[in-house]
Design goal:
By secondary structure, this protein is of the alpha+beta class. It has helices spanning 6-22, 65-71, 90-94, 131-174, 224-233, 237-244, 247-262, 340-346, 353-366, 371-380, and strands spanning 27-32, 37-45, 56-59, 75-77, 99-106, 112-120, 180-181, 185-192, 200-208, 211-219, 272-280, 285-291, 296-300, 303-307, 310-311, 325-328, 333-338, 389-396. Strand 11 and strand 12 (285-291) form a beta hairpin.
């Protein structure tokens, strides 16, 4: 308990000083009486006061305080030499106690923490009028100790919560997709939580020979609640994408799952934006559905094509309108799917986030660097993020040359 009194000790001197100006005693001390031990925690002694050591630990029965806590009320002894209660106790002469006043220190839960005591080597220093004054100070000390205990519990809770969040983050990271690199496509991602956990998620699978499903989802908000919803969806993604295949049917199934997950809880309102792209390298086409999500960017020689056709976010209504988009693939191309945390991070100086992203894209191609690596380097220089960041880059196994680059207004120097 001495460690729990560390913060109280900063104000304890002032409290003792105030008591000494109110109650005519040369010595004051605070003692703990828990676990049948009498432990002195702090002492205030004027010149000529009692011979009380700064630290003392003895069986509770050997102290005056034993009688205070046993009866749960103040103990006033005007003259210890004439009191049959204490004149035989060794502590009387050890501490040179002539007169004594002690009151219990009671915590908020009604349990006795210990005692606040006033003593003097001379007899007849105290009377009944001093009891309520000492009780007031004991109440103040009890409240302070209670706050110390609350803060101690809070610190333990924060430490435990931090450890649990760190473990949860490791678990969430373990579920992230490994890069795909086969004879037809390469798929990779960057994933940066704004806090310990992220509400963004992404996944990709080869559904059939040469046919790939890629999905990016963003649960509204960020932190633990959105991460838990995302982690509840993640295990089902492969099955849903493999069985439903068609983007509209995939999104409808995810919408059904979310509505079922959130059903019956009116206080928990959330939704999920997302985009699902079905890439068919055999037919050289992308069929996709955008559910209230930032548009995917298909980049090829002819320009930037937004994958924005779709409907409202998932988890709001039971049914989704069937609005899918189809784009044909010609020559070299890259497809960027991302959450709005990426564009928010790159929005600066009045420039749209997409413009900045495309400038980095051009720079990465001209310098023969990985676009996602360039993005990651930029993001790593930023301290703190307002939102989770997730980006997925899909590219065919054909190297895009400088001649295929899209003309853009400026380059980024790194």
């Amino acid at each position: 308990m001495a460690s729990e009194l560390a913060n109280f000790a900063k104000t304890g001197r002032n409290v003792f000083q105030l008591m000494s100006e109110t109650i005519p005693a040369k010595t004051f001390f605070i003692a703990s009486t828990r676990n049948d031990r009498f432990i002195i925690l702090d002492v205030f002694n004027k010149e000529g006061g009692c011979t009380v050591p700064s630290t003392f630990n003895a069986p509770l029965e050997e102290s005056y305080c034993n009688m205070v806590v046993a009866h749960h009320k103040p103990l006033l002894i005007k003259n210890t030499a004439q009191s049959s209660l204490v004149n035989h106790m060794p502590v009387t002469s050890l501490f040179t106690i002539g007169s004594y006043l002690g009151v219990p220190i009671v915590l908020e839960d009604g349990k006795t923490f210990g005692t606040l005591c006033a003593m003097d080597p001379e007899p007849d220093v105290f009377n009944e009028s001093h009891i309520p004054k000492l009780e007031t100070f004991a109440s103040l000390i009890g409240s302070t100790l209670q706050l110390e205990e609350y803060f101690s519990q809070l610190r333990k809770y924060e430490t435990q919560t931090k450890r649990e969040l760190q473990l949860s983050r490791k678990i969430q990271k373990s579920t992230l997709m490994k890069p795909l690199d086969d004879s037809k496509l390469s798929i990779d991602s960057i994933y940066v939580p704004s806090h310990f956990l992220s509400g963004d998620l992404c996944a990709w699978y080869e559904i059939e020979d040469g046919v790939y499903g890629v999905i990016v989802l963003d649960v509204m908000g960020h932190g633990v609640s959105s991460a838990l919803i995302g982690m509840a969806i993640t295990p089902a993604l492969k099955k849903v994408m493999s069985e439903k295949i068609n983007p509209y049917e995939v999104m409808c199934e995810l919408n059904r799952m979310l509505n079922e997950l959130l059903e019956g809880d009116e206080e928990l309102f959330t939704f999920v934006t997302g985009i699902y792209a079905l890439i068919d390298t055999n037919k050289q086409s992308i069929t996709y559905m955008n559910a209230g999500h930032p548009p995917g960017l298909l980049i090829n020689k002819s320009g930037i094509h937004s994958l924005d056709r779709g409907s409202m976010p998932l988890g709001i209504f039971k049914e989704l309108p069937n609005h899918c988009g189809i784009v044909e693939l010609h020559g070299n191309w890259d497809l960027l799917l991302y959450t709005d945390g990426l564009t928010d991070e790159f929005r600066a100086d009045g420039e749209k986030g997409i413009d900045t992203i495309m400038s980095y894209y051009t720079h990465s191609k001209e310098t023969n660097q990985s676009f996602l690596e360039v993005m990651q380097k930029f993001i790593s220089k930023t301290e703190g993020y307002n939102d989770d960041i997730c980006a997925v880059m899909i590219s065919p196994k054909q190297k895009i040359t400088t001649n295929n680059l899209i003309p853009l207004p400026h380059k980024i120097e790194t």
